[in-house]
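#structure-requests
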Amino acid sequence: MLESAMVMGLKSKRSLGLLAALCFYIVSGILCLAALALDFRLVHMALIGALSIISAFGLFMKKGWALWIITILFFTATTFSICMLYYTAGSDLALSSIMLVYLFLTWIFAAYSASRNRGL
């Protein structure tokens, strides 16, 4: 009885982490695609948005290929965020703050997804 309660507690924590990762990838994907709607020259944002939504779908469906998409997204988003931080350093504090948060959350959820790969 106690073991089943502990297993349920672990599953709910797993579900909470998965839900947080899903929300992050869906919201960031939608925001990146919305940026494309504002300016059609931001094709790289559409790529990051599409990869985010695809990875959220893969996580939701518990597919093994989701980790590969998340790995590609990790390197793409990290490169994009660091470039944005470099070119906007000191000139736009709000954009720099948003990029730092996005970079941090990308690393957190990529690490979470990689550590939970056996559970997919």
